[in-house]
Amino acid sequence: MIYSSVLSYPLLSVFLLYLLLHRYAPIGIMFLVAGKIVEMEDVGMLFASLGKYIACCIIGHAIHGFLVLPAIYFIITRKNPYIFLWGIFTALATAFGTSSR
């Protein structure tokens, strides 16, 4: 029992440092990004490029999720993947709808 209490203090201090870093890192990153945005001359071009990037990611994820993965499922099981996806749709909707955050 003595060893566990002696070892718990360094672990607790490391954990507290991690919590502090985890809590305040997003604020620091936000200010770093805000500083770069303020330095930019054409902010509209930044947001246009960002919008194109987001659209590209959404299209890529849609192709992957609705074409590539179902094709792999069909090749392996020889069953219709969309029937399987429709069967788990209510579970996914419940999971996304009742997020705890």
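That was protein one. Protein two is written in the same sequence-then-structure order:
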Amino acid sequence: MGCAAISVARSDNLSIGANRGTDETYALTGGALHSSPVTLGYAGTGTRNQTGGVLDATLPSSYTHLALGYGPEGVGYYNLVDGKLIGYV
């Protein structure tokens, strides 16, 4: 998958690697992303590379969390090099 730089965005659900057999990567290089829940690897593999900016996974919702490898076949990776992560794991 491609990479993206987000200035300010809000999402009610960010899922990377949601489907069986998928291998998806998402990069945040600056700006801010506000989303909850954030799921990396539900039935596939989800990778998040962050080299700047802010990920805020605390939006009010029934599922306020950051989940890594959430599903039975899911594998999730979060690589934080620089920037800030706000959330519940």
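Residues 1-7 have pLDDT under 50 and may be disordered. Keep this in mind for the problem set.
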